[in-house]
Amino acid sequence: MARKNPLETYFRRNTKRLIHKWIHYFDIYDRHLSRFRGKRITVVEFGVSHGGSLQMWRKYFGKKARIYGVDIDPRAKDFEGWHTKVFIGDQENREFLRSIAAEIGPIDVLIEDGGHTMGQQIATYEELYPRVKDDGVFLIEDLHTSYWKGYGGGYRRQGTFMEYAKGLVDQLNAWHSREPGFVVDDFTKTTRSMHFYDSIIVFEKERVEKPHAEKTGKPTIFGAYRPAK
């Protein structure tokens, strides 16, 4: 029998504040975030809305978690509670992002579900991804807006977060570059993996050493390969 997803179970039974989620997100959340449950961690969620997801994350991660919400609507401040604080501001404002990063400190889990415009998503990633711990997770969702013109998106349009992320896939593999303009950088050295899903990308961080190959066992084929004529 398949394991029940605790996040979807909470969502289905929710009678508290409003939660609005694409249903396939719950499996993705649980796959990448379950290892943090019950631990003393710092969680940041962009996009508080009606406050329902803050309650959901509190139930999921447990009492030891410090949870921070970020929203542009000042009414979201009303949803502060036990080890839960809400910052009010524009996530495209990099000075604002830096100020909350300075107050929060290192981040274990960042869930980006904010305004969904390209400028907001890229600014949040660039300012806060370096603040995520080496074993942390940066999850950015609702990336279907990369294809919606109203949010600055469009199929293969330059400047969308999806096109931006495609460049990061190359950077993940920069260890193998033989071209002078394509070199290993801090992203390459601190990112273990990128996981692409419908509307979500999950970045998993870890200190990465330069990859190397080894051999074991005895060789069984000798000489150059000559294809049959």
Keywords:
single chain; globular; Rossmann fold; 7 helices; alpha/beta; 229 residues
Q: What is the CATH first-level class name? A: Alpha Beta
CATH topology, by name, is Rossmann fold
Rg over CA atoms, rounded to whole Å, is 21 Å
Q: Major beta sheet, specifics?
A: 7 strands, mixed
Mean pLDDT equals 95
- SSE arrangement, N to C: HHEHEEHEHEHHEE
- Determine the structural class based on helices, strands and strand pairing: alpha/beta
Count structural domains: 1
Label the overall shape. globular
- What name goes with the CATH superfamily? Vaccinia Virus protein VP39
Q: Approximately how much helix is present in the residues?
A: 25-40%
Ends distance: 54 Å
Poorly predicted regions are none
Describe the secondary structure blueprint for this structure:
Blueprint (H helix, E strand, L loop, with lengths): L5 H8 L11 H9 L8 E5 L5 H10 L4 E6 L12 E5 L5 H11 L2 E6 L5 H11 L3 E9 L20 H12 L13 H5 E7 L2 E6 L24
Parallel strand pairs: 1-2, 1-4, 2-3, 4-5
Antiparallel strand pairs: 5-7, 6-7
Helix pairs in contact: 1-3, 4-5
What does this structure look like?
This protein is of the alpha/beta class and 229 residues long. The protein has one domain: Rossmann fold (3-Layer(aba) Sandwich), CATH 3.40.50.150. Helices cover 29% and strands 19% of the residues. Helix 1 packs across helix 3 and helix 4 runs parallel beside helix 5. The protein is globular. The N and C termini lie far apart (54 Å). The relative contact order is 0.11.
